[in-house]
Design goal:
Elements: E1 12-20, E2 23-30, E3 39-47, H1 50-56, E4 67-68, E5 71-72, E6 81-89, E7 101-104, E8 107-108, H2 114-117, E9 128-129, E10 141-144, H3 146-150, E11 154-156, H4 163-166, H5 169-181, E12 189-193, H6 197-208, E13 213-217, H7 221-229, E14 234-236, H8 243-250, E15 256-261, H9 267-272, E16 276-277, E17 280-281, E18 284-292, H10 307-312, E19 316-319, H11 325-336, E20 346-350, H12 355-362, E21 369-372
Parallel strand pairs: 12-13, 12-15, 13-14, 15-18, 18-19, 20-21
Antiparallel strand pairs: 1-2, 3-6, 3-10, 3-21, 4-5, 6-7, 7-11, 8-9, 16-17
Length: about 375
């Protein structure tokens, strides 16, 4: 008797294509084949990032056209905060099996440039990423290129951790990258500008790292309440006439030892660095570490600085972008063990067919992390 093979995945898949600013269309797209040395995933969850929202709104662009197996797409497939189930493992892949649930760190580094050779893979000179140069997770299937399997960017989701929570390993890893660079540590007094998704992750992570006092500056009243619920010691409105005095009092009059800007606007940066008294930045303690974390919208992003104050206060400034595969694995462990309870940030879970609605929710201050679940 002849045994017929089980039917494989369909030759096409449903995917959300960004065909114009603020216009996502659910279309049939070619289902990718499994790359040699890579993986083919069925996407289980893909969270919407602030950069996805900026691409959706036309405030950021993807250069070049995405392709699937050499076939150009009519618009890019966004989404890089990805959890999925392995459908197929490519030739040479022995460490993963079909059926396993994994998260994927989306950054693809060349491994050969001077920055990669010195361990700075997150700022590789030839950096590419899923959801940008390569199709992302707002689709039923995702091809994981071989370099991501080889460099440890694919990690198994521990049992009991739902994919809609595990997919937040990517943004948490970016927060880890920033706070590791600026050495947020036990006893720090931390000021975070912005109580959106990333500001909230920074709040949870800074507490985990031992910060003794955390203040949040946030203009939206709903997000101020959420930040307080997440454990902020002080939440202030930057429009308040007592904004600076409230922060100074909260920090015990000594200023903050760490500051993180987690909002895509230059306004809070200018506000903080406009407070100079007696030749020093009055809200910042000597030796403060300042991290410019969020990507800013195009426009006027110039910041006047008092270099004398920078010198005498020994102020260190950092710009942080992306994360390493190791940080992604560490972030997944923090989520799985609930050392950082990222599930508290998920405010909506919607199917792929409702991605337009999901994008609108993700750009609303009433929501933090919105997750697409294609299945």
């Amino acid at each position: 008797m002849t045994t017929m093979p089980e039917p494989g995945p369909p030759p096409t898949m449903r995917a959300a294509l960004l065909v114009a600013p603020e216009r996502l269309e659910i279309q049939n797209a070619p289902r990718p084949s499994c790359p040699q040395g890579g993986l083919l995933l069925r996407v289980l969850a893909c969270a919407i990032c602030g950069s996805d929202s900026r691409l959706f709104l036309g405030r950021k662009r993807i250069h070049g056209r995405q392709t699937i197996d050499g076939r150009p797409l009519p618009g890019p497939i966004l989404g890089h905060e990805i959890a999925g189930r392995i459908v197929e493992a490519g030739t040479g892949v022995t460490q993963f099996r079909p059926g396993e649930h994994v998260v994927v760190a989306p950054g693809i580094s060349c491994g050969a440039c001077d920055l990669c050779r010195t361990g700075h893979v997150q700022i590789c000179r030839n950096y590419e990423a899923l959801g940008y140069r390569f199709p992302g997770g707002f689709a039923q299937y995702l091809a994981v290129p071989a370099p991501l399997v080889a460099d440890g960017s694919v990690n198994r989701i521990p049992p009991g951790t739902p994919p809609w929570t595990a997919c937040l390993a990517e943004p948490l890893a970016c927060a880890l990258n920033a706070q590791a660079a600026m050495h947020v540590q036990r006893g720090d007094t931390v000021l975070i500008a912005g109580a959106g998704p990333m500001g909230s992750l920074h709040l949870l992570l800074a507490r985990r790292r031992g910060a003794s006092y955390i203040a949040i500056s946030e203009p939206d009243p709903t997000r101020r309440l959420t930040a307080k619920d997440l454990g902020a010691d002080l939440v202030v409105d930057p429009a308040s006439p007592t904004w600076a005095s409230d922060l100074r009092a909260g920090a015990g009059g000594r200023g903050f030892s760490a500051a993180i800007f987690a909002v895509s606007s230059i306004a809070p940066v200018r506000q903080l660095f406009s407070h100079i008294e007696d030749g020093t930045y009055s809200l910042l303690t000597p030796g403060v570490r300042v991290n410019f974390f969020a990507g800013l919208d195009p426009g006027d992003t110039v910041l006047p600085l008092d270099v004398r104050a920078l010198h005498y206060q020994a102020i260190s400034t950092f710009g942080s972008v992306n994360s390493t595969p190791r940080q992604n694995a560490d972030a997944l462990h923090l989520i799985a063990t609930r050392a950082v309870d990222a599930s508290r940030l998920v405010t909506a879970r919607l199917p792929l067919a409702r991605i337009g609605e999901a994008m609108r929710l993700a750009t609303s201050p009433a929501h933090l992390k919105v997750v697409i679940e294609p299945e």
